[in-house]
Design brief:
single chain; alpha/beta; Rossmann fold; Glycerate kinase, domain 2; 2 domains; 33% helix; 20% strand; globular; Glycerate_kinase_RE-like; Glycerate_kinase_sf; transferase; Glycerate kinase; kinase
């Protein structure tokens, strides 16, 4: 039996690599003679850089940038042979902001722009930007400011907008734009396919998990809509309903408007980079997973990407808001067992992941099915 193990990260507890190792241990205990292939996955968000770090000729470059709270932090990207791979989450990721300070109204993508500036200065002309896992909702305004764009209010003030101040942008000055952008080909791999605006857009789908309250949402949406209108009127680029523009708090929209980037599915791009189609084709069973399975999973996340390959698939997660039939999997195995708190589940994630996979496969003898959202024990 050929089993492919290919999870995404379990946010806040396990990297994709650590999750894959735990799942592999469970498989080996239950089915000691199975052929196991392990391929950690990512969708463009946090952890995607590690997936591409083994590309020939690419080396890690580290520098100090402004983090999402404008404090200095060390970030890195991949550089080599005129190419660069930049993961936005290394400079503006949600994991960089302590829980009590999470507030997308007042975080910035300036550090992402600094990484791009450094890559251009070092001769990169082919840049892949990985979008996802951000703490921000500034539509890439901070990134653009770091690359020479200027934003002017009606009162004539020159400022770097954050989500809470996008509404004050009156003019976008492009004269100081980094000249290297005109010579570079930039591809943005998005971890989701949501548009910028609307009920399925950046604000109403993702801002809460970044620390926004329900009362914040109408203002955030209005601010982003105003900024998108300015972009459309002055830069002649309409990003308002572009698929993927809502990725990373509107950084997808900013990548198109300010970098001339092409938006692509992060899952498609990263799956292609690791040869996932071939791996899936030879699998009798696929084990994938992520921290939480919910409606967001269906918008371009790893689990949804795996299921598109139409192989027998079991999804393992910390918790699930969907049934297996809603997801399209043969089974969902959730770690949040009765009597185990979320905090304990996260602390014991590797152990629980191994045991859940072992229990399921041992009890089913390798046969999957049903509509369960909890592991069989």
């Amino acid at each position: 039996m050929n089993i492919l193990i290919c999870p995404d990260k379990f946010k806040g507890s396990l990297t994709a690599e650590a999750a894959a190792r735990a799942m592999s241990r469970g498989v080996r205990r239950a089915l000691p003679h199975a052929d196991i292939n392990v391929q950690p996955l990512a969708d463009g968000g946090e952890g995607s850089l590690a997936l591409l770090a083994r590309r020939p000729g690419m080396k890690r470059r580290r520098l100090t940038v402004a983090g999402p709270l404008r404090r200095p932090l060390d970030a890195e990207y991949l550089l080599g042979n005129g190419r660069a791979v930049i993961e936005s989450a290394t400079a503006c990721g949600l994991h960089l902001v302590p829980g009590p300070r999470r507030d997308p109204r007042n975080t910035t993508t300036v550090g992402v722009g600094t990484l791009i500036d450094d890559a251009l200065a070092r001769g990169a002309t082919d840049i892949t930007l990985l979008l996802g896992g951000s703490s921000t909702s500034d539509c890439g305004a901070g990134m653009a400011a770091a690359l020479g764009y200027r934003f002017i209010s009606k009162q004539g003030y020159d400022f770097v907008p954050m989500a809470d101040s996008l509404k004050f942008v009156d003019r976008i000055i492009t004269e100081g734009r980094h000249p290297g952008l005109a010579k570079a080909t930039i591809t943005a791999l998005c971890d989701v396919d949501n548009p910028l605006l609307g009920p399925e857009g950046a604000t109403y789908t993702y801002a809460r998990q970044k620390g926004a309250t329900d009362d914040d949402l109408p203002t955030l949406e209005s601010n982003q809509a105003h900024f998108a209108d300015c972009i459309a009127d002055q830069l002649k680029v309409d990003v308002r309903h572009l698929k993927g523009a809502g990725a990373a708090g509107g950084l997808g929209a900013g990548a198109v408007a300010f970098l001339g980037a092409r938006l692509e599915s992060g899952v498609d791009g990263l799956f292609a980079a690791v040869g996932f189609e071939k791996l899936a084709r030879h699998a009798d069973l696929i084990l994938t997973g992520e921290g939480k399975i919910d409606s967001q999973t269906l918008h371009g996340k790893v689990v949804a990407g795996v299921l598109r390959h139409h192989r027998p698939t079991v999804a393992v997660c910390g918790t699930s808001e969907l049934s297996a039939s809603e997801l399209g999997a043969e089974a969902i195995l959730a770690l949040d067992r009765k009597g185990v708190s979320k905090e304990e589940s996260m602390l014991r994630a590797a152990e629980l992941l191994e045991e859940t996979v072992y229990d399921y496969l041992a009890n089913r003898h390798g046969k999957v099915g049903g509509d369960d959202t909890t592991p069989r024990t």
